[in-house]
């Protein structure tokens, strides 16, 4: 069979065109260092998240989003009903380049109309995505097309702009990251973290979007510690972290062990002359912030510094007084006779909750208030908390998806091997002198909260359950009196609160 030269050239041309389209369509699926060099930027990793792939239609990058109801895991042991893009919250990160023509097809599978707002993106008014103002709402089952040319670069976002309170409150949000045509310098690792707040009644699965202030779950990329993936780097690498937020609350994201410079906002790059060294970045609803630093070896905490935000669900009815500093000796034993398994808590602080969670069954589908195991024991955190791991042996991931497969939880990739002599330790190997003396005189007894029959005269762990033994004064003859004191203290506390409310 003979083939004309013209047909041969056309066939070869078509083959190259096909390969070109396939290659372009796969760029965001293969985030290797070689790809980064070809792209001109380092692709972004969204910890515990994903990147939205695209295909080429001529010179237009085509993305597809489906907004729908989905099940989402906040951490092992807790799954919620959420409203998601492409089956996840936050939705997959959209990445493109300044100057790109993009087409985004949005299919609505929610039970009500929706629209997608491209938050911070400069575009024609009719593409802005505000239901009723710039477009009709997308009816359930329909697909709308958004198409525009990107004339800026920076960290932007996308989110629902139809029934915002419910749809955003249920998780309909994501990153829209636009890289510059030519980066001024190389970024070795680029991460994106979306902040959010939720209220999920303990024992249930569906967030309550009507709650405006009293949230009980705070998340990084819709995950709460100890379900958050760590950020990783090698010493000396330049790292960028992008923070996005369209929730209700204010956050102060603090990173240990480093100073950094805030290099950009959702309005654009900050001139170098205006960049300040910081250790904490403040961010409110509707804002993004980029910060950059040079990685220093270690395992470093990264968390919101508002005290309740790195904690999980807490439930304290107002009629129950806090017991900090109130002795419960004697009372605990009496209550146990009526309520087997009862443990007095809150007398010395809340740190013991992390241990209780390992041995006590809480409400179903509810995270303990604090937890997470580190190399030295309980981390005692939750919510907006994760870890920056800077180790010499951190791998280079061939793709962003490869990172997501290997790095999901805080303990992944191991812990930092601290050089000898650089870890804080007690200067008393046998315990503080006063404590050691009291124990030697047997005036302090160490008791397991779960197994009161386990008692000894030195600190340690319970051989039955592993909980840390609690120091208890060995004065049984005073337990009755102490119990009355405790009850009186609680009554005084209630009276003081009532007097304060009256005045």
Describe the structure using short key phrases:
globular; seven-stranded mixed β-sheet; disordered N terminus; 30% strand; 503 residues; alpha+beta; 8 helices
Structural overview:
With 503 residues, this protein is of the alpha+beta class. Helices cover 18% and strands 30% of the residues. It has eight helices and 26 strands. Strands 10, 11, 13, 15, 16, 17 and 19 form a seven-stranded mixed β-sheet that branches. The chain is globular, with a radius of gyration of 28 Å. The N terminus and C terminus are likely disordered.
SSE diagram, text form:
Layout: H1 5-26, H2 33-39, E1 55-57, E2 60-75, E3 78-85, E4 91-97, E5 101-108, E6 116-119, E7 143-149, E8 154-160, H3 164-169, E9 173-179, E10 189-198, E11 217-220, E12 231-233, E13 238-245, E14 251-255, E15 260-265, E16 268-269, E17 277-278, E18 280-283, E19 287-294, E20 298-304, H4 331-338, H5 352-359, E21 371-374, E22 377-381, E23 385-390, H6 400-406, H7 433-440, E24 444-447, E25 455-456, E26 470-473, H8 479-502
Parallel strand pairs: 2-5, 4-9, 10-13, 12-23
Antiparallel strand pairs: 1-2, 2-3, 5-7, 6-8, 8-9, 10-11, 13-19, 14-18, 14-20, 15-16, 15-17, 15-19, 20-23, 21-22, 24-25, 24-26
């Amino acid at each position: 069979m003979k083939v004309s030269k013209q047909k041969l050239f056309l066939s070869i041309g078509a083959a190259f065109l096909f390969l070109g389209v396939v290659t372009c369509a796969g760029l965001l699926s293969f985030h290797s260092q070689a790809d980064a060099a070809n792209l001109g930027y380092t692709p972004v990793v969204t910890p515990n998240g994903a990147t939205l792939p695209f295909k080429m239609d001529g010179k237009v990058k085509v993305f597809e989003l489906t907004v729908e109801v989905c099940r989402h895991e906040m951490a092992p042991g807790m799954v919620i009903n959420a409203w998601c893009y492409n089956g996840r919250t936050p939705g997959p990160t959209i990445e493109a380049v300044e100057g790109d023509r993009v087409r985004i097809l949005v299919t609505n599978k929610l039970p009500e109309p929706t629209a997608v707002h491209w938050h911070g993106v400069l575009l024609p008014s009719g593409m802005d995505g505000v239901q009723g103002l710039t477009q009709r709402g997308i009816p359930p089952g329909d697909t709308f097309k958004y198409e525009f040319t990107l004339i800026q670069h920076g960290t932007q976002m996308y989110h629902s702009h139809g029934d915002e309170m419910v749809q955003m409150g249920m998780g309909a949000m994501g990153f829209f990251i636009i890289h510059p045509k030519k980066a001024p310098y190389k970024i070795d690792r680029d991460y994106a973290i979306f902040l959010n707040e939720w209220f999920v009644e303990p024992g249930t699965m569906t967030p309550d979007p009507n709650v405006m202030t009293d949230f009980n779950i705070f998340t990084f990329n819709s995950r709460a510690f100890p379900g958050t993936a760590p950020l990783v780097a090698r010493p000396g690498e330049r790292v960028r972290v992008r923070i996005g937020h369209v929730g209700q609350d204010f956050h102060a994201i603090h990173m240990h062990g480093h100073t950094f410079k805030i290099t950009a906002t959702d309005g654009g790059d900050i001139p170098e002359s205006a960049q300040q060294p910081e250790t904490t970045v403040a961010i409110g609803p509707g804002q993004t912030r980029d910060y950059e630093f040079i990685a220093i070896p270690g395992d470093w905490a990264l968390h919101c510094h508002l005290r309740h935000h790195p904690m999980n669900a807490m439930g304290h009815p107002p009629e129950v007084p806090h017991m900090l500093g109130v002795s419960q000796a004697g009372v605990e034993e009496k209550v146990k006779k009526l309520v087997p398994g009862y443990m007095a808590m809150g007398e010395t602080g809340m740190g013991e909750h992390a241990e209780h969670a390992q041995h006590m069954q809480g409400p179903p589908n509810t995270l303990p208030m604090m937890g997470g195991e580190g190399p030295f024991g309980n981390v005692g955190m939750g919510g907006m908390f994760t870890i920056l791991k800077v180790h010499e042996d951190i791998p280079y991931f061939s793709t962003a998806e490869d990172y997501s497969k290997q790095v999901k939880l805080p303990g992944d990739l191991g812990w930092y091997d601290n050089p000898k002599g650089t870890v804080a330790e007690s200067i008393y190997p046998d315990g503080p002198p006063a404590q050691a003396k009291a124990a030697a005189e047997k005036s302090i007894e160490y008791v397991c909260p779960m197994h009161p029959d386990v008692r000894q005269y030195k600190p340690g762990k319970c051989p039955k359950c592993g909980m840390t033994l609690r120091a208890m004064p060995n004065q049984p003859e005073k337990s009755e009196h102490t119990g009355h004191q405790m009850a009186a203290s609680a009554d005084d506390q209630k009276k003081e609160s009532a007097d304060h409310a009256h005045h």
